[in-house]
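1st attempt posting a full record on here, be nice pls
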Amino acid sequence: EAQAIEESGLESIPIRSVLTCESPRGVCAHCYGRNLATKHLVDIGEAVGVIAAQSIGEPGTQLTLRTFHIGGAAEQIVGQSQARAKHNGIVRFFRVQTLVRDDGVYVVKNRNGEIQLLDKNERVRARYNVPYGAELHKADGQDVVKDEVIFEWDPYSNVIIAEVSGTVRFKDIIPDVSLREEIDETTGQIQPIIIDTKEKTLFPTIQIVDASGEITGSYRIPTGANLRVAEETKVSAGTALVKIPREISKTRDITGGLPRVAELFEARRPHDPAVVSELDGIVKFGKIIRGQQQVFVEGEVGETREYLIPHGKHLHVHEGDRVRAGERLCEGPIDPHDILRIKGVGAVQEYLVNEIQEVYRLQGVKINDKHIETIVRQMLQKVRVDEVGDTTFLEGEQVDRHKFLAENNRVIAEGGDPATFEPLLLGITKASLSTESFFSAASFQETTKVLTEAAITGKTDYLQGLKENVIIGQLIPAGTGIERYRSLQIETDDEPLEIPAEGTDEVPDIFQKNP
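the predicted structure (as tokens):
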């Protein structure tokens, strides 16, 4: 069967998933798929939510050790520095812009490029995102053999490269004000480092000037960057002007293990998030406003968005770069709420599943995606009403997605105007408290508040979940306790079934009664 799929030429197929299941309560068996314990299609009534929580919670004991134990053997994650071909094929560049260094090496000068690996039938077998500053080993259209290096990059630092040849000139790089010499802990060498200045009007910049003294390139240098060139030196295109250690260029609050998982499941907004573009377009730099860099993104249909980048942040874009919606304009962690607002529900689901899996993967823990998807699905069950139309909702009200769609269908059937909504991402604590059952919410947190609100609004609990039935001592609606099994009657034959005994003429001593 695998061979038949390989020969069919199909690149991708739609599949059913917990994330896309339209079942109003729970999830349908075909979208969930196999029960991983039995390898058969999941039974109706299986408590897949409890299984998901246990599957994620149990390996948490292994993550906890890393978070709380300090000392012992030092652990360092070795960064990947090369992209190798996974199959034999042909290399194809997609949105990759390059320049040639003096030594003949091609260097990538943009950030959103992609290299595709095609087979002999022109099918895409693999995709690689090419980082800015990567050195290419293969040209567009060139053949490649499995395990051959396609491109490589520095895994421990980001670089800013000169895109033109010329002479280096410093602007706002002043010793002991915005520049300090520090000893590198790893190499022991003295390196000039850009430091954060109290003067918010200073923006350390490296300019490249040509023979006539005209500025042909200008590069803003972030706080914490190591200078690799001296003033008034001649540089060629592709030369690294500065190196920015990955600890700085990466998310500053990156936490391993349990805190990171909790941060994602609680859908917390990061402390110092990246500024994200809201539309596809071309980057244009504006002036400095109150110590912040003004950046415009001009869309293709005349739409323009303005963003302010805080002082000292490393810009990921240059003037004239093309960016896509949801792409970072500067360093920092991405806020999942921004992904939901800009790119939609599918993108934030993919982001959360991948980020949570990344934490467990680093610890060597394998968890099936469907368990994480089951929880992420519950985090996206609520919507906020924007325009009420002819529905019974209030503007700004938070309602269950299925309840909202059912009300809209009713209004449309009667010829009225449907309501519009904005999807919401709730953390697991908030999602549990905003459940339809007030018994379930009250047993979790803020008992007095939940019961008071339920009393004031005259809520009714239909006892459809597990917790509320446990609380009042009823049979839980899971396993054999679900409604469809309750009316089953088991019939037995009137005649008792005789099982012939084989070779039991003599009763062993062990079974003999004591005299």
